[in-house]
Amino acid sequence: MASTQPMPADGPSPSGAVGPATHPAPTVLEARDLMKRYPLASGPVEAVRGVSLQVRAGEFVALMGPSGSGKTTLLQLLGGLDRPSSGEVVLEGERISHLDDDAATRLRRDRTGFVFQSFNLIPLLDVIENVGLPFTIAGQDVRSGEPAERIRDAIALVDLTGKEDHKPHELSAGEQQRVAIARALVTRPAILLADEPTGNLDYTTGTEILEALWRSCVDRGQTVVLVTHDAKAAAYADRVLVISDGRILEDIDLGRREDHAAAPLITRLAQLGL
Amino acid sequence: MRGLAPYAVRSLRARPARTGLTLAGIALGVAVLLAGLATNGGIEASIDRTVALLVGRADLRIEAFTEQGLSARTVAAIEQTPGVAVVAPAITRRTYLTPTAGRPDLAPPVDVVGIDPDVESRVRDLVLARGSPLLEADEAVALITDRLAREDGIDLGSDLTLLGVGEPVRVRVVGILEGDGPIIGSAGRTVIVPILTADRLQSRTGGGDGVDDGGLPPLEGTPEGASPSAESASPTAPGPATPDAVAGVPATGISRVDVVLASGADPVAVTDAIESALVFEPYILERPADVAAGLRASTSDFRATTGLLAAVALFAGAFLIANTLAMTVVERIRELGLLRAAGATRAQILRLVTVQAVALGIVGSLIGVVGGSLLSLAIVSSLRSIGSVPVDRPDLSAAVLAVAFAAGLAVTVLAAIDPARRAAAVSPVEALRVRGAGRGRVATRILWLVAVLGLVAVVGSLALPAGKPPEGSGRSLAVYALLLAAVLAAPVVLVPLGGVAGSLFRPLLRLEERLARAAIARDRGRSSITVGALIVGLAMIVALGAVATNARGAATAWLDDVVPGDEVLTAIAPVPLDEASPEVDLEAIDGVVRASPIATFNLAHSGQRLTGAALVGADLADDGRLRFVAGDRNDALAALDAGGVAIVPRGVADRLGLVLDDVLALPASDGSLTELRVVGIVERSLPAAGGDAVIVGWPAALGWFGVRGADAFAIRYAPGAPAGARTAVEAIATERALTVNPIARVEGALTTALDRVFGLFDLLAFAAVIVAALGIVNTLSMDVWERVREIGVLRATGMTRRQVWRVVVVEAGILGIVAVVVGVIAGLGVAALLIVTAGGSVRGVPFELPWPTLALAVVLGVGLAMLAAAWPARIASRIEIAQAVRSE
Fold it and tell me: How far is B763 from B482, CA to CA, in rounded Å?
């Protein structure tokens, strides 16, 4: 089943729900009929085929799908890392999909945050400097003023207080990824986009990362879009968009829950044959 | 392996930019090496040709030691020596052609060679391009070189008027010789006349005219029939009975005699017999090998430096190749892991990389051979001569081409050893799991460096002059060792010095600087090798600049230190210091303080040839000339004019172990031993072939050493001398056949000659820097490739393209600054080494820092490095974020 529209979950409402926002939050991110084609010698390949979606403020959305389904490409289009072949992306009311490079760069620096599977920290920089990288790029001093305060806040959020002076090689893999999350959150972006952030981590460490992301939603109202192929990771989300063959196959509303139980989602996915 | 070989080549073709860059590096290195080898080979061949032309088939050459020359009795004594088959006397003299209507200005001087046409053909072949040969010993005819004919617009049948001591001598051109003729150092301007015609040039009475249309009037002011004043001071020792005259040979004034031995004659026995028979005048007996050795010695420094630079360029090329192949390994780590997982052995992987190196080496070296051939042709056409050796073509023989090609290939393969070993060491599991190759161990790289430098030193030694004395080879080895030390210092100083260098960028580009330093530290070995190549190139530029600056200083220091005048009037023949000497007229000119006579002549001491200079002590004292390092200045200069003393330049004093008040025993022109007391040691005196000249007073020069007159007059003008003073001096100079040489012009000519040679060296060193810059392109490209994900994340985090571009350029800037600092220190060290071992001429000149060269090194090192970074920086800045963050 292919659809370009969000669909309500067919199954029963998941247990353990803390309940979605009781009043509708404004839409932060909207995709309208997004298409992404790659020209190949054998003919163009469509990685994303006419996807439309909306993400509300403070919402935790997971994009889930098998390998090659187009979920990472969709995430990159949503975050302004790549340009769609057609359609548009609107972030906080501004069309971002066709910005020039400078404007897109400013957008990434100020209004989006990214977390990748590889942590990609700068080896020479300590935790504070890595977290404060967006400020440094913008020419701000990370050791004083508001940037310093925000950095402290972000480090505390990912539970790394006390390790501010550590270099990346002095941290565990989970800690390094948490530094990457803090770096993505430090500018208090409109949206945080995470691409398989637990892909390189063991279960326990991966859980720590998902907890950190979820907490940022709960505690700070951070909007998060997570790409994953792992149902247990997706179960942290309020809503799961199942991607297949470049389209949204299913929009599963799980609601905000503290137990992050994956069973309802797995059941639904099984119903979908995934 | 057959299956992997095409894969190796295909892999190179798949990366055309990097392959092209590497080929350019190899080609440049080989081109500079070949240019050095071919130029040096050309000089070597030219020396052989020059010697062959100079001495022809002669087995011995007897040269006059004093200005009086050899006499007919000496010629006769040689002829009578058993075992001598041919005796060919000759007179050589430098003079001027008088201006004509077609050539109103005084042209550069010509060298006149007087030969005996009867015997000359038995000694050497004078190949005629046109016309007919000389036939009689006393004809007013001449052969001229093709170059002289072209430069002065002279043709067969033209009449030439040669300035002589007495009347000018007019001759008619009957033949044009091929090439530049048999005289070295004449710049191809040679006139060959019958020996008795040449004799008339040095005779005060014998000028005249053998041409039908009558002779020129005698030069005004030249007293006819006046005997040279030194004539009487040249007593002849009684010798065995020999005829006083030989048919067709002048009675005296013969410059040299070439001797061909009879077939089967024992050269040693004949030499001994000649030496015991020659008792009439002082002489120098040389064999062709001695002449060749002298010429080789005069070009050895040039050839040693060329060889050194050629080797340095190849050295820089080796860095580039090693980095490129290492980069290929890093890039293809997954492929290599896959091949290993699929069953390829370590040996196969090793061969895979080696095949790539061989392919690169063959193609790059071939391109280099072609480029080097063209470069050597350009160098030779620009140089034309080194010292007194004319260079007309490079040696592009198969052997030279093969050596350059083989050296290029060998260095390439050697440079591939480390990357190949690293490739072979790739574990399939690791390669497929992680990105980036393991770093090379520092110890391995040091060994590699030593091996490459060793090979380059061997190749460089091929470009060293043959027969170079051991200290010359030692000097080159010391330079190599110093450069190696500088390169080995690079990994040690890279990080701390990089931090200091980064502080220059930090105030404005804080983040970029930190990221750049992180990139440098990422693979310190690779960064060090890149910096090392640049260090070597810059060090050579700095060293050459410093040596050139000091050589210029040394070359002109004697003008300020010794010559007591603002300009020098040079004579074509010794001007007697009698009542008719121009000195009197010159000093009578209003505005002329003094006209001081100067002469140079040969001296012998303990079998060594020295040069003597006759100067007026009072003039030197009044003019404040000579810098004394020992002895009382006033006493010494006063004693000089009294006679019996000598003032010795420091170089000669050191060489002969002389100190103040030592007695210098020198053979006089009559064969007796003259003793001169050393009354002073000076920093330098007049430069001469055998080191600075020993200064004696005029009484000693005229009385004992056969000096017949002044070769030059130094004119000192009074401050604010009237403009007419110079005009009056020029008038007297013209009248007395003297050439006016303002000191500034002499200085300019010396500087120009040095600039020409050092310009070539700079070009070769610049080529080495270019090769190093290509290495920077490669290294930074590799850094960018390795950091593609990091750059993607930085871009995703908000870094602009411009900031990414700046990170890479700042990285290059830091590498460049480190290279400049180490390169400048190493370069000054090399310069000090070269200057200290250069000997007397440069010593005593205060070491001067070559500021323009240092500025050039900064611009080249930092500017070129940053320029070289532009391309990789552009690649980095244009990385697609989506692909970069996806790439694993």
Answer: 21
